[in-house]
Structures are given as C-alpha cells and as structure tokens.
Amino acid sequence: MENTLGLEIIEVVEQAAIASAKWMGKGEKNIADQVAVEAMRERMNKIYMRGRIVIGEGERDDAPMLYIGEEVGICTQPNAEALCNPDELVEIDIAVDPCEGTNLVAYGQPGSMAVLAISEKGGLFAAPDFYMKKLAAPPAAKGKVDINKSATENLKILSECLERSIEELVIVVMKRERHNDLIKEIREAGARVALISDGDVGAAISCGFAGTNIHALMGIGAAPEGVISAAAMRALGGHFQGQLIYDPAVVKTGLIGESREANIDRLKSMNINDPDKVYDAHELASGKTVLFAACGITSGNLMNGVRFFNGGARTQSLVISNQSKTARFVDTIHMFGEPKTLQLN
Ligand SMILES: O=C(COP(=O)(O)O)[C@@H](O)[C@H](O)[C@H](O)[C@H](O)COP(=O)(O)O
Ligand SMILES: [Mn+2]
Ligand SMILES: [Mn+2]
C-alpha cells in the first residue's frame, strides 16, 4: 500500500494547499475550505486505490464532497478489477481535513495546512463530530504523561522526561473560554502558554519534533482533528491521548448537540458505549499501516506555506509513515503552464 500511495498523497495535500492558499487573506473562510476540498477530491480520484472517507466534511446530506462514506480512487469504479492490481484493490480508510485552520487562511495567519491520514480498512477511529480533550507530548514523555492527571502533575512529568525545568516548557492551548482554568493552572505551575486561535493538528504534531519550542498540547479541540493528530503521533512515536467531550456545558461554545443525555444516546447509536473512554494514539489510529501527509497553506512551525511566483508555486509538505519509520519533508516547485523562471527563494 505504502510505496505508491506515499508519493501520491503528497500531491493530494499539495493541490489542496495551493487551491486554498489562493484565498489566503481574503476573509472568505468557506471558499478557502471549499476549493481545498474540491482540489483534494479531484487529485484523490486519480489515484489507483480503493479508498473510503471515514473522517471528512460531514454526512452526505450536508457535504457534497468528501463526505463520510464517500468512495475515492480509481479502484472504486465498477470495473476496478480490470483497471487495478490486487494491491490497489485493498480497501483503505482515509481521514481528511483539506483546510485545517480555515480562519487562519482567511485572515492570513500562520499554521494552516491541508492534511490527511490513511490506514487499511478499520484502521482509523471514525470519530463523531464531537469535541475531544487532547494531550500531545514528545516521544520522550510517551506513556508517562497522562490525560487523567492534572496539568500540574503532567508538567512535572514532562519536565523530568525532557530534562528541562518547568519554566522552560511551552504548552499550546487553544484560546477558548473553556480553557481559562487550564491556562491559569499551567501558568501557576510555572510553564509558559502559547495560545492559538485555531489549528490544533499542527500544534499536536509539533510536539513530536524537538526544536519547535512546543512541548505539549493540552485542552479541548475537535474530535476528527484528534484522530488525524493521533495518526501522525502514532507514526512519529509521540504521545497522544484523546477523550470525547459530549457535555455542552464543558465546551461552552460551538455546536455539540442539544444536551449531554442526547449526546450520550448519539454515541451509543454509533457503538460508543463508554463515552468517557480515554483513547491513545494506537486506538485512534490502530491500523498496521498508518500514513500521514500535510502541506502548509500558510507558514507554521513545521512547514512553509505556499509561495507563489510568476508561473508557479513552491510548497512544503510532511509525510510520516509508521512502516518505513520516516518523517519526510518534501519541497516541491509546481509549474503552472510554461513559467519563464523557476523561483528557488
Ligand atoms: O481550529 C480548528 C478548526 O478547524 P477547521 O474548521 O478545519 O478550520 C481545529 O484545529 C480545532 O480542533 C477545532 O475544530 C476547534 O477547536 C473546534 O472549534 P471551536 O468550537 O471553535 O473550538
Ligand atoms: Mn480542522
Ligand atoms: Mn477544515
């Protein structure tokens, strides 16, 4: 699965990022999102694979494209056996977020990316459209920090694992009212807080690399993004835990259904009978093969954003594989038509 797909999915995220980047700074988050979805879908459908979207843009009725359950790839066609070899006919599950950080793109802010994760069928947790409490940390702290512990305790553990004082730690938290107490606790414990407005996938993955100056992600974001982050962290060997949040009173903002009770019933209807279960990266991305790909739309900690020049664009992507144990940064120049120059910088 991996050999051919690893290369193809780079182009999938690149095309989505380029399309979205054309809308950077225009204040049009829905268009920046929509063009990324269209570009991602178009490129995916050129791949010899038999893919199914398990995390996408929502249910079929609401989302015209890349909806949950949508089949993508050449080998989903009725005559697939004539077109595809046995490897390509293996069913694979795909989680996508074509524009992660739509607000960041619309307002020209750093940290947006086109992103996806792939595994064999059943290898990615089909997260409901709920919130998720998340804890991401570097590989050195894997299995040592714990989402059930307080932020203060986790900071002590992180400090030991990373051989740094608590004061040297930087913890990313989304700037939301629901995090006011968490932010206070982290600061009182002595660590530093980097607040982000959006884009917790990039923040989670940044914990996987030393040199990003991000040592943990704490707090509540969206569950689908949690699964995509978990796929990357599983392949990187970093720490990731997630716990679904189904109580509207906890998140304080956002659409999360009518009531706690109604949400528990909804989870049960999805065969999630223990709504408080804590999932680790291996449960959220349980497949034997896990591939992750992202391409920067606007520049962030991990990747440069799309840079256009006369006749082309340059992109930077990241592909992580648990099989080849690689985190590969890919730098690509895209030629639109016949450019007069190929701009390096
Ligand atoms: O910032 C985010 C927005 O993602 P997108 O809609 O694809 O641009 C995500 O990274 C967050 O995980 C998440 O969606 C968010 O925390 C939930 O929204 P909010 O209610 O504003 O906190
Ligand atoms: Mn997102
Ligand atoms: Mn998105």
Fraction of helical residues: 25-40%
Q: What is the mean predicted local confidence, pLDDT?
A: 95
Span of the ends, CA to CA = 35 Å
Q: What percent strand?
A: 25-35%
Q: Could you name the ranges where pLDDT drops below 50 across 5 or more consecutive residues?
A: none
Biggest sheet statistics: 8 strands, mixed
**What's the SSE pattern?**
HHEEHHEHEEHEHEHEHEHHEHEEEE
Rg computed from alpha carbons, rounded to a whole number of angstroms: 20 Å
The dominant shape is: globular
Q: Which ligands appear in the coordinates? A: the ligand O=C(COP(=O)(O)O)[C@@H](O)[C@H](O)[C@H](O)[C@H](O)COP(=O)(O)O, manganese (II) ion
DSSP E strands, number: 14
Catalytic activity: D-sedoheptulose 1,7-bisphosphate + H2O = D-sedoheptulose 7-phosphate + phosphate; beta-D-fructose 1,6-bisphosphate + H2O = beta-D-fructose 6-phosphate + phosphate
Keywords: Calvin cycle, Carbohydrate metabolism, Hydrolase, Manganese, Metal-binding
Pfam family, one: FBPase_glpX
Subunit structure: Homotetramer.
In short:
The protein is an alpha+beta fold. The chain contains 12 helices and 14 strands. The strands form 2 sheets. Strands 1, 2, 3, 4, 11, 12, 13 and 14 form an 8-stranded mixed beta sheet that branches. A 6-stranded mixed beta sheet has the order 7-6-8-5-9-10, sandwiched between helices.
What does this structure look like?
By secondary structure, this protein is of the alpha+beta class. It has twelve helices and 14 strands. A hairpin with a 2-residue loop joins strand 12 (307-309) and strand 13. The longest helix is centred in the N-terminal third of the chain and has 20 residues, at 2-21. The mean pLDDT is 95.
